[in-house]
Amino acid sequence: MARRPLRTVRQREGPDPALSENQNLLAEQRRALILDEVRRRGGVRVNELTRRLNVSDMTIRRDLDALARQGVIEKVHGGAVPVVEASTHEPGFEAKSALEPSAKEDIARAAAALAVPGSAIALSGGTTTFALARHLLDVPDLTVVTNSVRVADVFHDAQRPATGRGARPGAATVVLTGGVRTPSDSLVGPVADRAIDSLHFDVLFLGVHGISAEAGLSTPNLAEAETNRRFVRAARRIVVVADHTKWGTVGLSSFAALEEVDTLVTDAGLAPELRAEIEEHLPGLVVAGEARDGTDDA
Predict the structure, then answer these.
(1) Three-state secondary-structure class, residue 34
(2) N or C: more exposed end of the chain, with fewer CB within 10 A?
(3) In sequence order, what are the residues at sequence separation of 6 or more whose Cβ sits closer than 8 angstroms to the Cβ of residue 147?
(4) Does the model's pTM come out above 0.90?
(5) Per residue in 102-131, pLDDT tens?
(6) Which of 268, 257, 266 is nearest to 284 (CA)?
(7) Inter-residue contact 50 to 70 (CB < 8 Å)
(8) Where are the alpha helices (DSSP H) in the chain?
(9) C-alpha to C-alpha distance for 233 and 257, rounded to whole angstroms
(10) 281: how many CB neighbours lie within 10 A of its CB?
């Protein structure tokens, strides 16, 4: 019986130094690294990712499936490419609510700790600020200005007495701006802009469509960009609440430079190298959820 020829076995390449210690990463952190690679290189192959991240093919395929469900990549034969959205595309509130819910909850909890009792704060529209509003119900004596219909409803429902019970003690006094309603249920336009121009806030909690070192904070909606500019000018301190998938996304209109932000509150899915880049541009970075127990699904 003929013997099979021996195959030459190549020495396996070690993990990329820039992506070291990846076996110990949580799934969310690993997926953030994969997304960054896809966006930076315009596409990746599964076998490249298994080498660079030092995990199995099956783990990488699960990661790509998860990222595809989020709508941030498109799976192709043997790998993935980025989903290129039009810079004017603006998802509705319900669609955005389904993205990164656990990350948004971590961010909301951490951001609420930055609110000082008795202060005047502003909350822009967005699903992360909506999550934040629920945590702010426990901060006493707040005055809240918002252009978000959803955020206003959170405080309104908390202040409304239930049967046999009084209003929630921490519920805030809320001022809702006027304006034209966007797909994300924010009020924007000249009426909202004039209302904000006459006000002054201790802290602005700002949700964003996209954030990057080059474009700063951006949105696909021109009117919302102008309203957000007014919010930024009216605030003494600016806290951006944005999950890791917002980094590298650029909308049609920029409304603030990254250097104008005092603190970015994000989640543990943000890759370490991106954290270092962000810290070069702004003084405060809060990474929420890192102490949360979790297991890698590798």
Answers:
(1) helix
(2) N
(3) 124, 125, 176, 177, 179, 186, 187, 188, 192, 196, 227, 231
(4) no
(5) 889 999 999 999 999 999 999 999 899 999
(6) 266
(7) no
(8) 27-41, 46-53, 57-69, 93-97, 101-112, 127-136, 149-159, 190-197, 222-234, 272-279
(9) 12
(10) 15
